[in-house]
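Chapter review. Work through the record for RCC1 and BTB domain-containing protein 2-like before attempting the end-of-chapter questions.
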Amino acid sequence: MAGVITAMGSLVWVTMATSKPLVQVSCGYAHTLALTDEGFIYSWGANSYGQLGTGNKSNQAVPTLINMDKERLVEVAACHTSHTSAAKTQSGQVLMWGQCRGQAVAYPHLTHFTNTDDVFACFATPAVTWHLLSVDGDDYLTVAQSLKREFDSPEISDLKFLVDGKCIHVHKALLKIRCEHFRALLNETDEETIEIHQFSYLVYRAFLEYLYTDTINLPPEDAIGLLDLATYYRESRLKRLCQETIKRGITEENAITLLSAAVKYEARDLEEFCFKFCVNHLTAVTQTQAFADMDHDLLKNFISKASRYGAFKN
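Structure tokens for RCC1 and BTB domain-containing protein 2-like:
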């Protein structure tokens, strides 16, 4: 019970000391990691294997900022059975430190993994597997891998989209299976080339790639355009993925831009998230150019809602 109380007290300390809301907390065997909404990690607890990521093996009774010369972090991970720590960057890179196959790694190191689960499956002691790992040879491709490889490949495609003067090669059957819009469109036309004018090449290519891979890989500002497309095509899952991408990439500089987009495309959950971020970083957000250029009606509604939220009490 004392350990739980200490951890809760430390979380309060992080929030009060940094004035930054926490978005994720992970607990290891005897250490804790906390991620702020700006992508910084604080750690405290036991450090016999360097699991705090401070560059040494000294235990820390109070939360300590881990200094990383990396891009914004969006995920932290620890396991209650191990002294291992992991984190994931906005671009998908995975870092690890602590007890790694019996060795002590006192500072975060870059790995070849694409998710933090694999860190604990391959390097933690004892190993912990949260999802299935493929043990097939390199010459075997799953269905998902095969589809991904054939995206935008002209070899066996039977349809191409022309966007901003650039071609994207696809397969009619897959598009019909994955998207109601294309099922209706391709049942009415035998064209081998379709021109697209209302969306950019970057956005439309990301949309078609999503149909092949079920994932999106865009920075938050470009994900706004994909959110517009998802709304237009009534792709609810894609719309949710866009919102999650935008949430992970929000900063003080782009918060108002993302809030405006959420309002425009009626993404209520994203709108509330962006609004709370703006209120929690009100001073910095109001000094940005995006705030100065804010639409009058949106500005009026923002000030009114922020006032009700208690943002101007002090």
